[in-house]
Amino acid sequence: MKISTKGRYALRVMLDIAEQKSDKYVSVRDISRRQNITVKYLEQIISPLHKAGYLVSFRGNSGGYKLSRDPDEYIVGDILRLMEGSLASSPCTEDNFDCPMKRECRTYEFWAGLDRVVKDYIDSRTLRDLMPRKRDIESFLL
User: Fold this and answer.
1) Which residues pair with 57 in a beta bridge?
2) Which of 32, 44, 52, 140 gets the most CB atoms within 10 Å of its CB?
3) Are 75 and 126 within 8 A, CB to CB?
4) Burial class (CB within 10 angstroms; exposed 0-12, middle 13-18, buried 19+) of 120
5) H or E segment at 37?
6) Is the pLDDT assigned to residue 31 strictly greater than 80?
7) pLDDT greater at residue 64 or residue 140
8) What is the pLDDT of residues 83-138, one digit of tens each?
9) Distance between CA atoms of residues 126 and 15, nearest Å
């Protein structure tokens, strides 16, 4: 499994918005500048996040996007699956793939185990977990 640019950038965009004041809308131009992602590419990333209800938008001069929920309520795995689809390590562990060799395959359990480890990890992290804490920032600046 390899996470695409869209998946990685979606996580960065969500984190960028989460780190801003939650009552203010964040413009695509500001996100673009901070994250060094073109506005055109950002729009392709933000669109599915908005359609999935992860972001709310406001049009106009002070418009932009903000999170629809608290950062604690966004699971990293959900964001990645939205952008990537399946995160299975092998076609044989895909939900919709019925492998005829599954019962006899000596490697199936390995791939299924790898998928469980990845799923457990990405589903145990929220946007809040990725946000730097004040003391982390202070120690970085010292």
Assistant:
1) 65
2) 32
3) yes
4) exposed
5) none
6) yes
7) 64
8) 999 898 888 888 777 778 878 889 888 998 999 999 999 999 999 999 987 555 55
9) 10
Cα–Cα dist 95/88, whole Å? 9
**Length of the chain (residues):** 142
Report CA-CA distances (Å) from 3 to 6, 30, 96, 129, 138.
8, 25, 20, 19, 31
Here the tokens at position 38 are 């073109």
CA distance 116 to 18: 28
E-strand stretches of 59-112: 64-67
- For residue 26, what is the DSSP state? B
Taking CA 103 as the corner, what is the angle to CA 101 and CA 105, rounded to the nearest 5 degrees? 55
- Kindly provide the b/e burial profile for residues 28-49, where b requires at least 16 CB atoms within 10 angstroms of the residue's own CB: beebbeeeebeeeebeebbeeb
pLDDT digits 0-9 by tens, 52-90: 999 999 988 778 999 999 999 999 999 999 999 989 888
Among candidates 69, 86, 57, 85, which has minimal Cα distance to 126?
A: 69
